[in-house]
Amino acid sequence: MSNKPHCFTEADLNVLQAQAGVMNGIDILLTHQWPVQVMKFVKKPDNFAEPKGVRLLAHLVNTIKPRYHFASGPHYERLPYRNHKILHEKAQYCTRFISLDCAGNKTKSKWLYAFNIVPMKHISDADLRKQPVETTENPYIEIEKEKQKEEDKKQYFYTAGDKRKMPATRQGPDRKKEACWFCLKSPNVEKHLVISVGASMYLALAKGALQNDHVMIVPTNHIKCQQYLDDNQQQDVQKFKTSPAEVIPGQQEVYDCVFREKFYQLRTCRYIVYPS
Question: HSE (CB half, 13 Å, CA atoms) of 183?
Answer without folding.
Answer: 18
